[in-house]
Design goal:
Order of helices and strands: EHEHEHEEH
Number of helices: 4
Number of domains: 1
Number of strands: 5
Helix content: 25-40%
Shape: globular
Distance between the termini: 17 Å
Radius of gyration: 12 Å
CATH topology: Glutaredoxin
Strand content: 25-35%
CATH superfamily: Glutaredoxin
CATH architecture: 3-Layer(aba) Sandwich
């Protein structure tokens, strides 16, 4: 299941996670962002128990986008042990995202 990440649960679900975290920073009005939604759902099923897959609505949680200097969406962040380890800007194929996640799983 794709987790809804907000400012209030960010520390618990991302910073304190013992698993790698994939964060899809998106907005409702962003067409390319919607292209990533089914990919995130597939990844959440495939990596269940191995990684946390989450979505951050940047309109509702601008502080998270600002924390990582995100200026374009969609941006996918890869976080391990509370540290940003990789990122991908723009809508990309699932294979690109899994290739970035796999070394951390």
């Amino acid at each position: 299941m794709v987790q809804e990440i907000t400012s209030s649960n960010f520390d618990e679900l991302v910073m304190n996670s013992d698993k790698p975290v994939v964060l899809d920073l998106w907005a409702e009005w962003c067409g390319p962002c919607r292209m990533l939604t089914p990919i995130m759902k597939e990844m959440a099923e495939e990596y269940d128990g191995k990684a946390v897959i989450g979505k951050v609505d940047v309109d509702s949680n601008p502080d998270i986008a600002a924390k990582y200097g995100v200026r374009n969406i969609p941006t996918v962040l890869f976080v391990k042990n509370g540290e940003l380890v990789d990122k991908q800007v723009g809508a990309v194929p699932k294979s690109t995202l899994t290739a970035k996640l796999d070394p951390f799983v």
